[in-house]
Amino acid sequence: MDSDFETIRVESADGIARITLDRPEAHNAFTATMQAECQTAWRSLRTDDDVRVVILTGAGDRAFCTGIDRNEPFTALDGPAVYGTSNNFMYDDPGDSLGPKSNDLWKPVIGAVNGMACGGAFYFLAECDILIAAEHATFFDPHVTYGMAAVYEPMKMLTRMPFGEVMRMSLTGSAERISAATAQRMGRPRTSAAWRPGTLPRRSTRRRSTRPRWPPAPRPSTAASASNPASAEERPPQPTSPMTGGSSGSWATSLRSQSVDMSSSP
User: What is the span of the domain harbouring residue 31?
Assistant: First the structure.
């Protein structure tokens, strides 16, 4: 799918489609036009059987996306609006039609972050299946710096970041930026190491997690008791609890018998 758009570029070859947010002069901030064009592109890729995977990135090396273009009209009273509402008291989520999953595209999407990714950029990143970042990439949410509540964007990132880190990012605003290396240490699911623009992402060298075998191997003490029943009888009775299947009565009785023996000893 190769189409002419005003704010994005869409190219495809060899089963791979590449969508580039193409407003470098505005740090790839999205407008109502970009919203509509993203929706068209995602829905077209959904039915394009020649495309198996999509790469999403931003033009230039300064920013992936910096959220909403604040120079755009914000209500429908002023023309095509980012929020698409009729007044200043009823705002729709401005990112409803930006991401691939919001437009029913379930093919794998790789987000390639080159530069700043902040605020509304998380509408895109939260719906990517794999994230890679250049060494100079940064992530932050500037809403509170400008007296606004950080609401929609941080909530979407809860699927990719630990809750504590999302809260910290939301409360610190522009005062603190997350580097690509720090983002990787946070353990975001499917986040790769630093990526150099213009090259293919490196294959991850992180070891796969190992799961315990089932059924588990018997413990040595259990095996010894099974082979030598007398050794099990010689051991003193161990207290059991309701959590391990024993009754609270037997546990209390064991404690009382031990106390009687101690008081009767010379």
Answer: 8-194
Tell whether the model's pLDDT for residue 109 goes beyond 90.
yes
Q: What is the pLDDT of residue 108?
A: 96
Q: Is the pLDDT of residue 200 over 50?
A: no
CA distance 207 to 209: 6
Burial tier of 225 (Cβ tally within 10 Å: 0-12, 13-18, 19+): middle
Q: Is the pLDDT of residue 132 over 80?
A: yes
**Rounded to whole angstroms, what are the CA distances from 230 to 50, 181, 220, 254?**
71, 59, 16, 21
Cα of 153 vs its chain's centroid, Å: 12
Structure tokens that stand for 206 in this block: 């992180």
Evaluate whether 48 touches 11 at the Cβ level (below 8 Å). no
CATH of the domain at 18: 3.90.226.10
Per-residue DSSP letter, 64: E
Q: Which residue's structure tokens are 């003490």?
A: 221
Round to whole Å and give the CA distance between 59 and 27: 8
Burial classification of residue 63, based on how many CB atoms lie within 10 Å of its CB (0-12 exposed, 13-18 middle, 19 or more buried): buried
C-alpha–C-alpha distance, residues 2 and 21, integer Å: 14
Name the domain count of the chain: 1
Q: Is residue 57 part of a domain?
A: yes
**What pTM did the predictor assign?**
0.67
- What is the spatial distance between Cα 187 and Cα 156, in angstroms, rounded to a whole number? 16
Each as own residue / partner, the long-range contacts of residues 80-86 (CB below 8 Å, 24 or more positions apart, any chain) are 80/32, 80/33, 81/32, 82/30, 82/31, 82/32, 82/35, 84/32
Structure confidence by residue, pLDDT tens digits, 14-46 = 999 999 999 999 999 998 889 889 999 999 999
